[in-house]
Amino acid sequence: MTAASQILDRVLVLEMVRVTEAAAIAAAKLIGRGDEKAADAAAVEAMRAALNGLYMDGTVVIGEGERDEAPMLFIGEKVGSAIGKGPRIDIALDPLEGTTITAKAGPNALAVLAVAEEGNLLNAPDVYMDKIAVGPGYSKDIVNLDRTVTQNVTAVANEKGVQPSELIVCVLDRPRHEKLIAELRALGCGVMLIPDGDVAGVIATANPDTTVDIYMGTGGAPEGVLAAAALRCVGGQFKGRLLFRNDDERKRARKWGIEDLDKIYDLEELAKGDCIFAATGVTDGSLLDGVKTLRDGRVTTETIVMRASSGTVRRVKSEHGRGNIPG
């Protein structure tokens, strides 16, 4: 078990819940409105305001992009009410994981946040990452990105005591995954295609209720760090390798201190030490219920919050009175 952080003890778990609740409620007002940018902007503004109300010296290490791309919650931005004097906290966040999902009123949109002591979250550039993840209970390095799809699936099936055809593999529904999906189906695997939201897809491997055995495919590197922080709390394995499409992306990675561009990152290299992960549902999904507005104007939310040092997983269902709705 990871040693508990005295610094994180000062950033109360419930405060993280309030931060993701605020972002989710703000984004939920734009569910199904067809405007991805507006939904994302609302979540970003609400999350930033909530973070700035916390007593901490926070630094965004995974955020909305670099400063020239994002006016708020950009990589390197300082947040909190105690800059220079409060506990130093690194923050990885995605105020709205699933902007397209939200705009189209689809499932599994989340407001997501992970925090750790300074220096314990990989400062991943906004590039793609090749990912593979499984839930807890398997032998170390049961999967790896230096093996083929068939080798990884076979290894998990053998250890689980089933045929590959009995496994369910979660994959983002993207044209770039055409060959991956074809190989999985040739093995007889069930393939759960998701339109967006690969943080939820990775977490699904650790939730027996989803029936997902493996997550595979490429998605955003920042989301990879967030997913790794979640798995640190609940158990499981994750491997990630940054993918670069051009020299500009390679320069960006080196700017953030990444020298080995071919490195395969393990779970604890993406999210080290003690960490807290929180996610609030925006739309209904396999992990969480979405935001609901009741007839009397009250709003309900459901949040999952987890801590690596204790392995504690809490589900928090909240009712927000009309005069006390975050954001």
TrEMBL record:
Positions annotated to bind Mn(2+) 1: D40, E64
Reactions mediated catalytically: beta-D-fructose 1,6-bisphosphate + H2O = beta-D-fructose 6-phosphate + phosphate
Gene that this sequence comes from: glpX
Residues reported to bind substrate: E97, G98, T99, Y128, R174, P175, R176, D196, G197, D198, G220
SUPFAM superfamilies in UniProt: Carbohydrate phosphatase
Keyword terms, alphabetized: Carbohydrate metabolism, Hydrolase, Manganese, Metal-binding
Positions bound to Mn(2+) 2: D94, E97, E223
One function term, GO molecular function aspect: fructose 1,6-bisphosphate 1-phosphatase activity
Domain of life: Bacteria
Keyword Transferase applies: no
Xref: Pfam families: FBPase_glpX
Name the record gives this protein: Fructose-1,6-bisphosphatase
InterPro entries: FBPase_class-2/SBPase
Family: Belongs to the FBPase class 2 family.
Organism classification: Bacteria, Pseudomonadati, Pseudomonadota, Alphaproteobacteria, Sphingomonadales
